[in-house]
Design brief:
The structure holds two protein chains of two kinds. Chain A is α/β, with parallel strands linked by helices. In chain A, 43% of the residues lie in helices and 17% in strands. Chain A folds into three domains: 4-76; 94-274 and 392-446, Rossmann fold; 280-350, no CATH class. Chain A has helices spanning 4-7, 16-24, 29-34, 39-46, 50-65, 68-71, 100-106, 128-138, 163-176, 197-212, 226-231, 238-262, 278-288, 294-309, 315-321, 331-342, 346-349, 356-363, 368-371, 390-396; strands at residues 74-75, 94-95, 112-113, 117-122, 151-156, 189-193, 217-223, 265-270, 272-274, 385-387, 399-410, 413-425, 434-440, 443-446. A nine-stranded mixed beta sheet of chain A has the order 6-5-7-8-4-11-12-13-14, sandwiched between helices. A two-stranded antiparallel sheet of chain A has the order 2-3. In chain A, strands 9-10 form a two-stranded antiparallel sheet. In chain A, strand 11 (399-410) and strand 12 (413-425) form a beta hairpin. The termini of chain A are far apart. Mean pLDDT of chain A is 79; it is low at 279-329, 341-350 and 372-382. In chain B, strand 8 (232-235) and strand 9 (241-244) form a beta hairpin. The chains are: A alpha/beta, B alpha/beta. At the A-B interface, helix 3, helix 5, helix 6, strand 1 and helix 12 of A face helix 6, helix 8, strand 5, helix 9 and helix 10 of B. Strand 1 of chain A pairs antiparallel with strand 5 of chain B, so a sheet runs across the interface.
């Protein structure tokens, strides 16, 4: 059982030989749990006696039940320790982002949640690292000032933590929160850099839990999740995606366990990738299908033709076909188009609302459909942006916060416009609202309206 | 009569049936499910007593009453589509009916403040009262979740509602450690599919065991089980990626959804184009019908209800609010009320919006799809008459995501024009993001 120690960290057995047999048969902890009712089938597969297996299952079930299941369900108010019965930290706490106005607009006055993975996604130099540094400072504040009085761990896979920025933020916070002057310190931000995926895995699985037990950790930052996955070559084609997806799921489950054990917030930065045109998507799929049989290939080419001929549901392809790109299309024109196309019945025949590309615009942070008619996210050749790491990673995070920056045309160059931040999805807060923010020596702050 | 729980009016039909008496031996009582006559069972299926209502009219309609007791209900959707909000809504409903709720967390912790926001303030002042109704369990691995329901501890039977938020996190990552065996030979296509299959096989086996165990538990102890699941992506041969429930689809041989899940809801977002009734005030015929698109409106679609798969799925829109989910006629009202208009307009639009929910509310299995289609047809027919000067736009347009949900009675409300002569204003001036907030 390869994953027995991640499921049951304190598991000890008299019969490691049996565990070896399970590993050879590719049985994981969850497999054994699901096979616990069909012992005879398992006996045949592993070539072990049923007696042996039954006694294993008895001890295995007992081990699995230890802890939460054995103790039974607790009253739900213990999640946030509403009754203040226990001196332990509750699972769910919130800490301020450092700007109370931002907390109020986006986070219901509360802030970043602990116990789950929060993702921050945005293009480079939009302000993600500064925001993360600010979180490292604000988590150190006392609970009265909105913090958790906890330390922060900053794991960097890219350029590292800017100590200059950190010190500036600390002095700015010290000036704002006089009673926490002693509490705020750069010593409470622990930094570790990792150069590749293997190192990252090792740090997250072994070094970090050991370290976290010695301190009161409030926040773990991983900046960023995407850089190593993009750098490393997993192969090509669908099996590569599958392997990468597996690695992402493993990392996510390790992060989740950390969040639950340390009862801290885990904030992960993610990068952005472009979403390409329909034809290119299909071409890419066709070209990677190198080992498909002939019949499959012909099926695929038929389907390709169907998609290429069918009215594309991508607005940007119409933009690309037209000579000039008109950004001033008014809302009414758009709606009139919508209406005109509603009249054509065959449009609806191929429409599948649950297609990933169509639904993804609601949870990646970039709605390329509505944004395509504004200057905000238009990049020549692409149809907009999407969060990196794909749908698999989107399922791993509990909350997603998006950072955007407008690009405005200024004479011969694309200038930089206002920066906005918003919640894309979260079980705790309302989504959809984008607020403008600015960055200065005081940190990341919302621009007052 | 000897059987339990028979109401007097059903006695007449059952009195001739040889009903086994309850004089069975004490030992066998443990192993038998409670006896009930068929007709009273069928009656109880549809009765409000056996359902936890969602307190939202449209949702109750597509679910035929709400969460069914003794059955497993699945609600799945992409991130941000409203799954946790549904869970909160049902949890609050259950507490308001004084039922016991067990909330099982796998990834994030339950949003407690949203729960409290939907309950009477006495619960906020006195969290112990809340504790007596809602209990919490945190399960961090798939193996533990399986054992919890395959070998259920005694305390599970005391609950009326069990909500699991969510099952996808554990089902996806439960097998992430599965390392394909390295092959010494070059990797052939058959080998690669063999490995990929193993992963999928493991997941479907675990899903099947879990769901079967849950449905046994639900039936035995009359518990309503609600599974919230994030949708995973699946690439169909030759096509693009599509989102499906983590438990599989109806056609899958290995999926438990066919046998063990009673009701399935798909949640997703979509753009809705709807008619602004206030635009009837315009005198210009070409501008009479003004459409506005509301972007990313949450939709709920029941693809299976009460054990029956729907050919033409029943669809409804809803709103996500702090305390869970809410009805859309509220949303219509809100939209109209923001407009500078006279009271007549508001009054008429409120009436019209009630008819809107009536349309959705009156759906039966057979009529449902027909009414929906006719609303769409009415729009396309009507629009061709009125918007004659729409210039030809290229066919590849935005519209394939935009559905039209038009309360058919809107088109007939010409008497709104009344005394209102002033121009409502250009629609493009209105900040839609303001309306959406």
């Amino acid at each position: 059982m390869a994953d027995i120690f991640s499921v049951l960290p304190d598991y000890s057995s008299d019969d490691y030989d049996l565990l070896n047999t399970f590993s050879e048969c590719n049985l994981l902890a969850a497999d054994l749990a699901s096979l616990s009712s069909s012992v005879d089938a398992l006996a045949r597969r592993t070539r072990r006696s049923q007696v042996e297996l039954r006694s294993f299952f008895n001890s295995y079930e007992e081990e699995l039940k230890k802890g939460a299941i054995e103790n039974g369900p607790v009253g739900i108010s213990t999640c946030m320790n509403l009754l203040q019965r226990s001196h332990e930290k509750p699972v769910l706490r919130f800490f301020s982002t450092g700007d109370s106005r931002l907390d109020m607009s986006l986070f219901g006055g509360k802030g970043i949640a602990t116990g789950c993975i929060t993702e921050i996604v945005g293009e480079s130099s939009v302000g993600k690292s500064t925001f993360l540094t600010q979180l490292c400072v604000s988590v150190q504040l006392s609970p009265e000032n909105g913090g958790l009085n906890g330390d922060a761990i900053y794991i960097s896979t890219e350029s590292g933590l800017s100590t200059h920025r950190l010190n500036m933020l600390i002095s700015s916070f010290r000036a704002r929160f006089l009673d926490d002057r002693e509490r705020l310190s750069a010593d409470r931000v622990h930094y570790v850099g990792c150069r590749d995926l293997e190192e990252q895995d090792h740090i997250l699985q072994f070094q970090l839990p050991a370290f976290a037990r010695t301190r009161n950790i409030g926040l773990i930052v991983l900046d960023s999740i995407a850089s190593h996955y993009r750098a490393e070559h997993f192969g090509s084609g669908p099996s590569a995606m599958y392997v990468r997806g597996n690695e992402l799921l493993k990392t996510a489950s390790v992060l989740r366990r950390l969040a639950k054990e340390c009862k801290c917030a885990v904030v992960v930065a993610n990068q952005v990738t472009d979403l390409f045109r329909l034809e290119e998507l299909v071409q890419g799929a066709v070209s990677s299908a190198s080992v498909m049989t002939l019949t499959q290939q012909s099926q695929m080419s038929q389907a390709t033709e169907k998609y290429l001929r069918a009215p594309s549901d991508m607005p940007a392809s119409s933009l690309q076909q037209s000579e000039s790109i008109d950004f001033s299309r008014s809302f009414e024109e758009e709606e009139a188009e919508l209406l005109a196309s509603m009249n054509e019945e065959e449009q609806e025949a191929d429409f599948d609302v649950l297609e990933m590309d169509l639904q993804s615009r609601f949870y990646t942070g970039w709605n390329w459909l509505s944004d395509a008619s504004s200057e905000a996210d238009y990049v020549p050749g692409s149809q907009g942006k999407t969060s990196a790491m794909g749908h698999v990673w989107s399922l791993c995070v509990s909350q997603r916060i998006v950072f955007k920056r407008e690009t405005i045309e200024m004479d011969y160059d694309l200038g930089r416009g206002k920066r906005t931040i918003g919640v894309v999805f979260s079980p705790y807060f309302e989504s959809g609202k984008m607020v403008e923010f600015e960055i200065d020596n005081e940190g990341v702050r919302e621009v007052p309206q | 009569m000897s059987t339990l729980g028979i109401s007097s009016d059903s006695l007449t039909t059952e009195s001739n049936f040889p009903v086994p008496s309850s004089r069975s031996s004490p030992d066998s009582k443990i192993h038998k499910l409670p006896k009930q006559s068929l007709s009273s069972y069928l009656k109880s299926l549809d009765s409000a007593f056996s359902k936890i209502s969602s307190r939202v009219g449209a949702i109750d309609t597509i679910m035929r009453g709400g969460l069914a007791r003794g059955k497993v209900t699945e609600i799945s959707g992409p991130p941000g589509s409203g799954k946790t909000s549904f869970g909160i809504q049902f949890a609050i409903s259950a507490v308001l009916e004084q039922k016991q709720v067990l909330w099982i967390d796998t990834a994030s912790c339950v949003p407690l403040s949203r729960l409290l926001a939907g309950l009477p303030s006495s619960f906020s002042r006195n969290p112990e009262a809340l504790d007596s109704y809602v209990k919490h369990l945190q399960i961090s691995s798939l193996a533990k979740l399986l054992i919890l329901f395959m070998r259920p501890p005694a305390y599970l039977k005391d609950f009326d509602v069990i909500i699991i938020d969510d099952i996808t996190t554990l089902l996806s990552s439960g097998f992430a450690y599965f390392v394909a065996k390295p092959s010494t030979k070059s990797v052939s296509a058959a080998d690669r599919t063999q490995r990929a299959e193993d992963h999928t096989t493991k997941r479907s086996r675990a899903a099947t065991e879990l769901v079967n165990a849950l449905s046994r538990l639900a039936a035995q102890y009359d518990v309503a089980v609600l599974l919230l699941g994030k949708m995973v992506s699946r690439i169909f041969a030759g096509q693009r990626a599509r989102l499906v429930s983590v438990l599989g689809e109806e056609g899958d041989a290995t999926s438990p959804v066919t046998t063990s899940i009673w009701t399935r809801l798909y949640l997703f977002r979509n753009d809705v184009l709807f008619d602004n009734p206030a635009s009837h005030i315009h005198s210009k015929p070409s501008l009479q019908r003004r459409q506005t698109a509301k972007r990313g409106v949450p939709h709920a679609c029941a693809i299976k209800c009460a054990g029956v798969n729907y050919e033409n799925a029943s669809l409804s829109v809803f709103r996500i609010v702090n305390t869970g989910i809410a009805d859309t006629d509220e949303w219509f009202d809100e939209f109209i009320v923001r407009e500078p208009s006279n009271e007549t307009v508001i009054h008429e639009s409120r009436e019209a919006s009630h008819q809107f929910t009536e349309i959705f509310g009156s759906f039966n299995d057979s009529e449902r799809s027909d009414s929906f289609v006719s609303a769409k047809q009415q729009l396309s027919e009507g629009s061709q008459d009125e918007i004659g000067d729409v210039t030809q736009h290229s066919p590849d347009q935005i519209a394939s995501e935009a559905e039209t949900i038009i309360p058919t009675n809107y088109t007939n409300k010409t008497e709104i024009s009344d005394s209102e002569e002033e121009d409502i204003g250009d629609w493009s001036d209105i900040d839609i993001s303001e309306l959406l907030s």
